[in-house]
């Protein structure tokens, strides 16, 4: 099989996303006939049908869906490669791409990375951070989208190496006037009588909470779903619902938003974060330095907490 060229893959992705060759041509500034010719050559080269023509357009076959998934990864990697090489041409000596969960980004990770970059010996290093769900962090590192990932260490590792980072503590967050406010602690079962605001269902904490509720033979009453921890606190501050989020995220804004934090008397309330990499020995020098720094500051924080 001849090498796949990125231009044809980009056109194939455009056709799959628009479900129409003419619209894909408009998006890519190319005649529809030229796209059709390239796609026919692609199908001939791969020896399988990739698209099915319908009355109102086209749709990918099962083989086409598989190619679409791989094509997006390849095109994303090519874009990052071009960006990274451009950075080297501009004088940057090292670049690290890092994926992180929302909780990690809302807590200590930005400060830890900033401390790393402030060191004079790291002046020629860039760090690019992108937020993903915990599961997507691990998948992204596995697929080569990033060299390093930071997320909850209870997610499936998918063959990656995982080294310890920091920890946090999940608490019940309520409005000051809520019936559960002011208690020293509650069991999770006690919270299920109340309505929740939560994050999208594919996030790590909602998945864990729904599983814990199911084990109790109950279901969470989710009234509102938002996309950020800041929005969670705003909804709780409006006394519309309660939520379970890290203490380290909610504590700084307690007074401003009239929040009350109640300890959860559950073994899973303390979470540990991990530093995920494909192979520690194959990290670039810049990525290895960042991982070493993150491990060191995490160990220092653990030592202070122990005392």
Task: Please provide a written account of the structure.
With about 300 residues, this protein is α/β, with parallel strands linked by helices. Strands 3, 4, 5, 6, 7, 10, 11 and 12 form an eight-stranded mixed sheet that branches. Strands 1-2 form a two-stranded antiparallel sheet. A hairpin with a 2-residue loop joins strand 1 (about 50-55) and strand 2 (about 55-60). It is built from 13 helices and twelve strands. About 45% of the residues lie in helices and about 25% in strands. It has helices spanning about 5-20, 20-30, 30-45, 60-90, 100-105, 110-120, 135-140, 190, 205-215, 230-235, 245-250, 255, 285-305, and strands spanning about 50-55, 55-60, 95-100, 125-130, 150, 160-175, 185, 195-200, 220-225, 245, 260-265, 270-275. The model has no long low-confidence stretch (mean pLDDT about 90). The protein is globular. It folds into two domains: about 5-85, Orthogonal Bundle (Arc Repressor Mutant, subunit A); about 95-305, D-Maltodextrin-Binding Protein, domain 2. The termini are far apart.
Write the layout of secondary structure elements.
Elements: H1 6-18, H2 21-28, H3 32-46, E1 51-54, E2 57-60, H4 62-89, E3 94-100, H5 102-106, H6 109-118, E4 125-131, H7 134-142, E5 148-152, E6 161-175, E7 185-186, H8 188-191, E8 195-198, H9 204-215, E9 221-225, H10 229-237, E10 243-246, H11 247-250, H12 254-257, E11 259-264, E12 270-277, H13 285-306
Parallel strand pairs: 3-4, 3-5, 7-11, 8-9
Antiparallel strand pairs: 1-2, 5-12, 6-10, 6-11, 6-12
Helix pairs in contact: 1-2, 1-4, 2-3, 6-13
């Amino acid at each position: 099989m001849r090498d796949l060229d990125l231009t044809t893959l980009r056109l194939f992705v455009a056709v799959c996303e628009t479900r129409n060759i003419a619209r894909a041509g408009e998006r890519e500034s190319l005649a529809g006939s030229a796209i059709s010719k390239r796609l026919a050559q692609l199908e001939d080269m791969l020896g399988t049908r990739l698209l099915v023509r319908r009355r109102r357009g086209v749709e990918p076959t099962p083989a086409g869906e598989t190619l679409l998934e791989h094509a997006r990864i390849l095109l994303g990697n090519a874009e990052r490669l071009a960006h990274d090489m451009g950075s080297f041409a501009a004088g940057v000596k090292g670049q690290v791409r890092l994926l992180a969960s929302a909780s990690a980004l809302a807590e200590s990770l930005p400060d830890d990375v900033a401390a790393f970059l402030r060191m004079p010996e790291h002046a020629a290093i860039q760090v690019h951070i992108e937020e993903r769900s915990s599961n997507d962090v691990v998948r992204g590192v596995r697929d080569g989208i990033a060299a390093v990932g930071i997320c909850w260490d209870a997610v499936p590792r998918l063959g990656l190496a995982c080294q310890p980072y920091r920890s946090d503590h999940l608490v019940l967050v309520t409005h000051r006037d809520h019936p559960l406010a002011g208690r020293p602690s509650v069991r999770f079962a006690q919270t299920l009588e109340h309505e929740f605001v939560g994050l999208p269902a594919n996030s790590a904490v909602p998945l864990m909470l729904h599983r814990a509720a199911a084990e109790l033979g109950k279901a969470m009453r989710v009234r509102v779903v938002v996309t950020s921890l800041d929005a969670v606190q705003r909804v709780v501050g409006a006394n519309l619902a309660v939520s379970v989020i890290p203490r380290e995220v909610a504590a700084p804004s307690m007074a401003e938003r009239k929040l009350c934090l109640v300890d959860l008397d559950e073994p899973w309330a303390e979470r540990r974060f991990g530093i995920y990499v494909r192979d520690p020995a194959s990290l670039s020098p810049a990525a290895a330095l960042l991982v070493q720094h993150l491990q060191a500051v995490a160990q220092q924080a653990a030592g202070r907490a122990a005392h």
